[in-house]
UniProtKB/TrEMBL annotation:
<keyword id="KW-0732">Signal</keyword>
<dbReference type="Pfam" id="PF00395">
    <property type="entry name" value="SLH"/>
</dbReference>
<feature type="signal peptide">
    <location>
        <begin position="1"/>
        <end position="26"/>
    </location>
</feature>
<dbReference type="InterPro" id="IPR001119">
    <property type="entry name" value="SLH_dom"/>
</dbReference>
<feature type="domain" description="SLH">
    <location>
        <begin position="90"/>
        <end position="146"/>
    </location>
</feature>
<dbReference type="InterPro" id="IPR051465">
    <property type="entry name" value="Cell_Envelope_Struct_Comp"/>
</dbReference>
<feature type="domain" description="SLH">
    <location>
        <begin position="147"/>
        <end position="210"/>
    </location>
</feature>
<feature type="domain" description="SLH">
    <location>
        <begin position="26"/>
        <end position="89"/>
    </location>
</feature>
<protein>
    <submittedName>
        <fullName>S-layer homology domain-containing protein</fullName>
    </submittedName>
</protein>
Length: 337
């Protein structure tokens, strides 16, 4: 069996034509949300469920920032909270008899604004940030979990760290291409619509896209160089202090199938721990966090010995069917979802 050679890691994303499913165009009932708007399907989905509403002039104002009162109204509407006989939250700026007092008392009693309201002031017209959104939605919908990906600007010391991790893990929202979450950015009505739709209907979530983007973010944020275009991402990375470099080419379409093709060092002077480029492990943690150590162990075994008793076995992790193969010159990891 040939030894693995070269210093190259190539990610090739394969799309099978027979897996493509045509989706009907969503027709918007709001005059400022065209059929080509990125969140038109989510907006129409929530409008159909009467979770969100437009304005009297027939607009939705998708780019307007969202206020605390608007989120309170939409979440209480979707959750069908009981709006009567709630205890008085004793807020300084919302009193009995005021418009939507019953809604505010309900969301306060449910605890979903616990991290947002301070000094007994609800501030109904205050705009909501992405961090506050993560807290509200995680509390309202019991979202939990930790992601293997860490955002640069939301460390474990950030007040919303656990909530940001929860919405990222559950594929409700993701970060930006620079590896940040931008927790203090204000939330727009269209962004909220997309997040709410993903919570209520998993078909709006896109695991492949999210995994792919978090892989890119992870690589870019770890001393590695990347060039991005509309159709591809080209990485030319160098690990400081080690002797190997590699390039990654990643197609940015939305695949149903993925294949990682890995070529490792064959030079016996290279320690076994360095034979597989480190980004393999990072990529596996992004793709299949619950199975990363298992698959990485198989890859390492093949890199060291040229074989493994676990080759060609079928595994299932995090929504993917996974299989590892070896063709004599490269290790192939197949992901199907």
């Amino acid at each position: 069996m040939k030894k693995l050679s070269a210093v190259l890691l190539v990610f090739s994303l394969l799309i099978s034509a027979f897996l493509a499913v045509p989706v009907a165009e969503a027709q918007s009932k709001f005059k400022d949300v065209t059929d080509k708007h990125w969140a038109v399907k989510e907006i129409e989905f929530l409008s159909g469920k009467k979770v969100i509403q437009g304005y009297p002039d027939g607009t939705f104002k998708p780019n307007d920032n969202l206020t605390r009162m608007q989120i309170a109204l939409m979440v209480s509407r979707e959750k069908n909270y009981n709006l009567t006989d709630r205890s008085d939250p004793k807020l300084k700026d919302i009193n009995k008899g005021q418009t939507n007092y019953n809604v505010v008392s309900a969301v306060m009693a449910e605890g979903i604004f616990k991290d947002v309201v301070n000094n007994n002031q609800f501030k109904p017209n205050a705009y909501v940030t992405r961090a506050e959104m993560a807290s509200i939605m995680a509390r309202a919908y019991n979202l939990t979990g930790g992601s293997s990906y860490q955002f640069k600007d939301v460390t474990s010391k950030h007040w919303a760290y656990s909530y940001v991790q929860a919405v990222a893990t559950n594929q409700i929202t993701i970060g930006y291409n620079d590896g940040t979450f931008k927790p203090d950015n204000l939330l727009t009505r269209s962004q909220f619509s997309a997040m709410m739709a993903r919570i209520l209907d998993k078909s709006f979530r896109s695991p492949s896209k999210i995994n792919r983007e978090t892989v890119i973010n992870s690589m870019v944020s770890n001393y590695e160089y990347a060039k991005l275009s509309n159709t591809s991402a080209s990485f030319n990375a160098w690990n400081p202090g080690s002797i190997h470099s590699y390039q990654v080419l990643m197609d940015l379409q939305n695949p149903s199938n993925m294949v990682f093709t890995i070529k490792a060092w064959s030079d016996p002077s290279v320690p076994n721990s360095d034979r597989i480029p480190t980004s393999v492990n990072k990529a596996l943690q992004m793709m299949i966090p619950s199975g990363a150590s298992t698959i990485y162990g198989i890859v390492n075994s093949v890199a060291k010995t040229g074989s493994s008793s676990d080759l060609n076995k079928d595994y299932s992790f995090d929504g993917y069917s996974v299989k590892v193969k070896f063709n004599g010159s490269a290790i192939l990891i197949y992901f199907t979802n």
